[in-house]
């Protein structure tokens, strides 16, 4: 199809401006991580006076980054797996069964998305403290507490997205499996889950990103024992010297796994969103 | 495996639907409830019970004195609300100011993010060489962990060693003094730009997903009829994206209005008045002054406001859909 001149001008301008807007902070992050300390303390420059990987070595010493990293990996992975399993069951029920309370459940769960975090931050903290004193289950300052908190953060959107995805899988498939003698759980595992793989991947990415990036609860619920990257990264600036080069290097390191994962799987993510949103 | 067994156990105690089936319950009626049970339990523990507790706390005089022994905090009724809504008092006027800043922040961030997302989605609608590259590039700010992106901005916005001032005053050679970006009135613009940088790729992603469901021949047919691109956008793209836009705008509104992370990471402890977004304000009001009852009351007010706005929005949207 022929493209008009104004359409082409629009396309080129939009893409150029948005590319600059997107790239500049990323460039600053990447290049500053390769600068010696004097470069980031003086006036800014777009290119380092000497390229060095020293910040990538020093950053592990300034704060216990490795331990924060480990905590983040464990918390995010476990929360993602649990949230995925729970969301699969719930979405299966919503998509395949007509039962009393179905609409109420879906709306209530989705509306928890609108709750301001500050409203239940302190009560949740107090509840965790009380569970500890009454049942001896330590939830504040442990990974378990963070895991169960984070898994519920991604749950509403995951259920909504997966239910949409399951709706797109023809019912005849699981009906046929049932005729062949599969129970409902086997039909779910054997038939629906394989067909819903892109949706599952999308939900898993979303859950992982939610946990990996959460700041508010991490800043209140963590102690030195279970500090995650979200809080740990800010500790560089509370040191007497602000090691901007190390902060930027650490930012690159904590971003790489998640950005690569997201970009590799973005097609699945878009497919999952399409199923959920464009109904 | 263990998840399945606990599901079944807790499901057995789930309530039966009353009078659903007079001939007796269908076999397996409990299955959907059992499937939902884990989700319900976690939502109850992490969202519902704390929310109810939070509402209850808002009626208490829960200050520093009572925090270790909060069961004994005296009930003050609506006192916390009175103080929060008395706009002549320091607490009330602080809240009102923060609310207005947040409203302006939300309108700017949601509006501009939507506009940028739409522009990018349309610009990348037709295939051309390098489309995949730009699509990937634009999604990076969304994929980055939120704090990593914001910290990079924080560094860029430093007065003496930041990239922004370097660009304007060294590269472009603007006259005058380098301004502070994270202190004073500029803090508002700083937090707006950073929030847009974070938010617009999400709008782009959703709109791009929505555009894929519009068949190409609709555009071709309208082009044969002589429709210009702008006309095609307003007559085809916009109406076809209605369902996506409806969800997208609401979600962006709620996320932006509740945004705590951006000001928290960007400003850290400095919290400039111009960037005093409401979640950040309530957090500081609770944790710096240790007056949790008052903080809870403010949170409840915020929740009520969001409920009312979302309710009106959905009502208007559904009515319009019925008419169409």
Walk me through this protein's architecture.
The complex is a heterodimer of chains A (279) and B (324). Chain A is mostly helical and 279 residues long. Chain A has a single domain (60-277), classed as MetI-like (MetI-like fold), CATH 1.10.3720. Chain A is 75% helix and 0% strand. Chain A contains 14 helices and no strands. Chain A has helices spanning 5-32, 37-41, 54-62, 65-96, 102-111, 117-135, 143-167, 171-179, 184-195, 197-213, 216-221, 229-232, 244-264, 266-277. In chain A, α4 (65-96) packs parallel to α7 and α4 packs across α10. Chain B is an all-alpha fold and 324 residues long. Chain B has two domains: 1-57, no CATH class; 78-323, Orthogonal Bundle (MetI-like fold), CATH 1.10.3720.10. Helices cover 70% and strands 0% of the residues of chain B. Chain B is globular, with a radius of gyration of 25 Å. Mean pLDDT of chain B is 83; it is low at 1-23. At the A-B interface, α1, α4, α5, α6 and α7 of A face α1, α2, α4, α5 and α6 of B. Chain A: Keywords: Cell membrane, Membrane, Transmembrane, Transmembrane helix, Transport. Chain A: InterPro entries: BP-dep_ABC_trans_perm, MetI-like, MetI-like_sf. Chain A: It is a multi-pass membrane protein.
Percent helix of chain B, as a range, is 55-70%
Query: CATH homologous superfamily of chain A?
Result: MetI-like
SSE series of chain B: HHHHHHHHHHHHHH
The CATH class of chain A: Mainly Alpha
CATH architecture of chain A: Orthogonal Bundle
Tally of separate domains of chain A? 1
Largest sheet of chain B: none
> Element order, helices and strands of chain A?
HHHHHHHHHHHHHH
